[in-house]
Structure formats: C-alpha cells, structure tokens
Amino acid sequence: MSRRMRVSVVQLGPIPKDDSREKTMLRLLNLFEDATADDRTDLVVFPELALTSFFPHWEIRDSEELHAYYESEIPSPGMAPLLEASKRKGVAVTFGYGERTAENRLFNTASLFKGEKELLRFRKVHLPGYNEVQPDIRHQNLEKMYFRVGDLGFPVVDFKNTRIGLLICNDRRWPESYRMLSLQGAELVCIGYNSPIHTPSIAEADILTDFHNELSMQAGAYQNSMWVIGAAKGGVEEGVDQIGGSCIIAPNGKIVAQAVSNSDEVIGADIDLDMSARFRKHMFNFTLHRRPELYRAITEPMPEGWPRPALSS
Ligand code: CDT
Asked: Quick check: is 302 in a domain?
C-alpha cells in the first residue's frame, strides 16, 4: 500500500494593519475549521507572516510598534488558539510569524506544530529587499532591516510516514534551498509567501509574477522529487497588490491543486508520498548521478572575480 497524506493549504487574503490580532486569529481559526472539515486532513499549511500584515512593506521607526509584530516566546500566547485547534483536531499546522528571541534577535520564521508541540522551526535564509528605506519606489521591502538571516540551516523532521522541510517565500526562488532539503531526504516542503505583483526596479517582470512563482516551485518539486506546498497571502494589503496562486505540486512537477482567487481560500489534495521515492530512485538518483566534486563554486567562498559580471548593453 502506498504512503499517502491529506494536505490542505489555507491561502489568506490581505490582513489590514488595523485588524486586531484577535480578529485575525478568529479568521485563521475559521479557515482551519474549513481545512479540516473532511476529518481526513493530516497537515494544514498557512502563509508567511500569517498572524499579521506583511509589515516589511513599510517603515516602522518606533521599536514598541515594531516589536508588536513579533512573537517572543514560542509557542506564543498569540498562537495559542490555533495550536489548541490543532490539538483538538489532531492535525498538524505550519505557519509563518515574526520571531523575537530572548537576545532580541529578529527572524522571519515558520514552525510546524502538532498542538503546542513544535516539531520543526525554520528561519528564512534568503531575505529580499533592503536594510534602509528606498526613495521613489512604489512600496518598500525592509526585510533586511527587520530580520537577520536565518541561522538554523535547512532542518527537516520525520512526520507521519514522511520527512518534511519548510521554506519561506524568497527561499523558493533559490534552487539550493530545495536541494538542501532533498539531500536530507525530505519528500515534502511547505512554503508560505507574500509576493507583490510589482517588483521595484524590475517592472518588466511584473506580468510574469505568477509564472515565476509556479516556475520556481515546479522546478523545485521536479528537480528534487518532492511534493511542494505553496501558501500565499494575496490581494491588496496596505496598498501592495500580491499574487495568490497557492498550490500543491507533485514530484513530477505538475500542479495538482491550485487556488483560483487571491483572497481567503482553502485547497487540498491527497498526496502519494511514494511518488517522491520513485522519482528519486529512477530520475534524480543523487547517489548515482550527482557530481558534487564539480559543483564547488556553489558552496565555497567566491574566488576573486566571481561571480563574473553580466555584460552590460
Ligand atoms: N516575502 C518575500 O520574500 N517576498 C519576495 C519579494 C521579492 S522582492 C525582490 C518574493 O520572493 O516573493
């Protein structure tokens, strides 16, 4: 009998800055109920920074105001109602949040929980944007100002009959993220994201935002023989228009379920975990075919003159 799992994705529409934490949590709880109403779901996947607005889109100078966006003990009181629901239903849940450690280190983090038991924590590695406010752009992305680069590497955990990893938004655009997980045997990766349609300074890509979202995650799935679960926060949040496109992607690279809106929506799929093992054995057999001795430039500190500059026109 094949190893199977039922996965649900909760896509969120915008979370307005003025919505209280309580109001947002109520919304998440209702969506969690929808996602688990079939009594078959094993795992529910929420987006990046799911408890609040995506606050790196604007400048916050007041530290009290800024710190209100972070959780300072994990699990935090702000997460408790969702974790209670997870416990009551016996369903695992993963979601993103701002993390503030006891040493005041700030991370863009995602955790996998079953009830209040934290099974896995990942701190975002690829932080896009800037560490200072940029003049004359349509919206900010101040992730480099509000977060440090994640210091936990790319951890995985055994859960049910499979091995799971987590990534956060921009991590999904970098092939190394998936490869770090697949080399450790992960068969399923959950990725929450907040992706604006418009990218400052590269407006020519704006019509391709949905395409690049799918391209990155489908390539990650296929080239690493993994199930990829993408959960978006879409719609216009505080003036920033973000894509939806939440989806469940098989290890053959095909999208098997996808959200049709860019607001609150639940999708789900029964997934065959053995498909990952089949593709890893017969196509991307790392043991037989990888040539890491020829990939040194990928991991070693860059030698003088690398990367070679692009030719300018
Ligand atoms: N949240 C996040 O990582 N967003 C980025 C925006 C790209 S900015 C160049 C993303 O990769 O979708």
From this structure: no
Task: Measure 128 CA to ligand 1 centroid, in angstroms.
Answer: 6
Predicted model pTM: 0.97
Task: Tell whether 311 is covered by a domain.
Answer: no
Amino acid at 15: I
- CATH code of the domain in which 163 resides: 3.60.110.10
Q: Which domain holds residue 33?
A: 4-286
Tally the domains of the chain: 1
Q: Which residues of the chain carry a pLDDT beneath 50?
A: none
The pLDDT, as a whole number, for residue 299 is 85
Q: Each residue of 272-296: pLDDT tens digit? A: 999 999 999 999 999 999 999 999 8
Evaluate whether residue 308 is within a structural domain: no
Ligand 1 contacts (CB < 6 A) are 48, 128-129, 141, 169-170, 173, 193-195, 199
